[in-house]
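in:
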């Protein structure tokens, strides 16, 4: 089936897509690290195949049939291919431009995403869910929906229970470097504990914190081809940044960092673990005799590039046995809204990830991305397993003793 392009292929992005695609020398070195190629063993589900499809679509050599665009829609945006590429192909940029050209896919659950992106509404829903004891029967409700329903996936993954208190920063201590913390949308509710932990650790490390209001950075829109709402979110980011008076911006959610950097060119936007690792001598931790598995989200490795800093920090906790999760699989399948759009594919990748976790037999599973963590926790629950899941910063703040 041929589908209309949302934007004319004669517009400027077409030249940009072709230019980015022409950087690919088709060596295939990216294929072994591509999670969708591992799932399907199909060239069209590989980075090289997608680059060829994008170039052909942009040049008008093929029609955007449902089948062709599905190969592009299946892409997780994990950027494992970009990191592995010897020709420095900017695959992430090419994907964003191509999805902008095509517009949101037919499977995109727009109403659900519009709800999830609104923290005020979602916080109210969490409270209502808590009062109604929804966590007890939402699984029953979800299983009455079709296996490929985004609403079923949302019910299984999102806690919808009375949320933790919002993160708060104490009064500013003038004279210390000021860092702004971006709470985001889902993370402002479901990762408030990790945000509070980041604030505690950063303050002990010598920073003062400016907490931005909770709103969506626009990542799901940007990666889903909804360019106008992505631009509105970017403007919101720029306004909040202009008013905060900080010199650096941090987010405990690595999945937000790429979009924040795009909205704020020239601004230092980093994972807080980078700042903490450079001030680690100010942090003293009490021992914890536990074996933990560390899941490193794709965005932490490929965008934030803060995986080494995180490992360095966790290894400062005496007696803690930190076991990074072996790869492959190269993605847990959460990938922003992918877990809602393609829940069955997302579950396949998640189950492969959980099989790797089982080989390490941990007492806890740590992961920095709220989407990955909720997705993994839903799989753990579905399989009757018992690994608690936490943000690494929550564990670090719990073990913190004092400042030097
Ligand atoms: S590694 Fe880079 S150059 Fe080689 S096929 Fe993949 S994208 Fe193209
Ligand atoms: S971004 Fe990830 S899923 Fe998409 S082509 Fe690259 S490696 Fe494969």
């Amino acid at each position: 089936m041929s589908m209309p392009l949302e934007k004319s292929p004669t517009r400027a992005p077409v030249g940009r897509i072709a230019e980015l695609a022409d950087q690919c020398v088709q060596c295939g070195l990216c294929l072994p690290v591509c999670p969708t190629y591992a799932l399907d063993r199909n060239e069209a589900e590989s980075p090289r195949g997608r680059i060829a499809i994008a170039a052909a679509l942009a040049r008008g050599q093929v029609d955007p049939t449902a089948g062709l665009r599905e190969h592009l829609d299946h892409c997780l945006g994990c950027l494992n291919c970009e990191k592995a590429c010897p020709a420095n192909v900017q695959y992430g940029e090419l994907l964003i431009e191509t999805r902008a050209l095509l517009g949101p896919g037919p499977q995109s659950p727009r109403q659900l995403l519009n709800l999830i992106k609104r923290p005020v509404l979602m916080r109210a829903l969490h409270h209502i869910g808590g009062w109604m004891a929804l966590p007890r029967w939402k699984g029953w409700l979800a299983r009455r929906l079709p296996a490929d329903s985004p609403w079923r996936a949302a019910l299984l993954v999102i806690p919808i229970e009375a949320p933790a208190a919002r993160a708060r920063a104490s009064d500013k201590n003038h004279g210390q470097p000021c860092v702004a913390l971006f709470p985001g949308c889902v993370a402002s509710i479901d990762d408030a504990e990790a945000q509070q932990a980041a604030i505690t650790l950063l303050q002990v490390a010598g920073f003062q914190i400016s907490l931005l209001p909770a709103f969506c950075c626009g990542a799901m829109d940007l990666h889903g081809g909804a360019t106008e709402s992505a631009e509105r979110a970017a403007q919101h980011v720029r306004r909040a940044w202009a008013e905060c008076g900080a010199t650096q911006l941090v987010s405990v959610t690595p999945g937000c960092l790429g979009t924040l950097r795009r909205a704020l060119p020239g601004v230092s936007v980093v994972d807080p673990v980078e700042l903490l690792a450079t001030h680690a001598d100010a942090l003293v931790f009490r021992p914890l005799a536990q074996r933990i598995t560390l899941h490193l989200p794709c965005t932490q490795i490929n965008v934030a590039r803060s995986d080494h800093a995180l490992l360095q920090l966790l290894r400062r906790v005496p007696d803690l046995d930190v076991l990074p999760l072996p790869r492959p699989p190269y993605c847990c399948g959460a990938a922003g809204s992918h877990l809602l759009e393609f829940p069955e594919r997302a579950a396949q990748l998640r189950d492969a990830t959980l099989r790797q976790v089982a080989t390490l037999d941990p007492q806890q599973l740590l992961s920095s991305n709220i989407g990955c963590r909720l997705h993994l926790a839903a799989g753990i629950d579905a399989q009757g397993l018992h690994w608690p899941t936490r943000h690494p910063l929550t564990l670090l703040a719990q073990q913190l003793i004092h400042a030097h």
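note: Strands lie at 178-181, 208-211, 248-250, 268-270, 284-285, 291-295, 321-324, 364-367, 389-390, 400-402.
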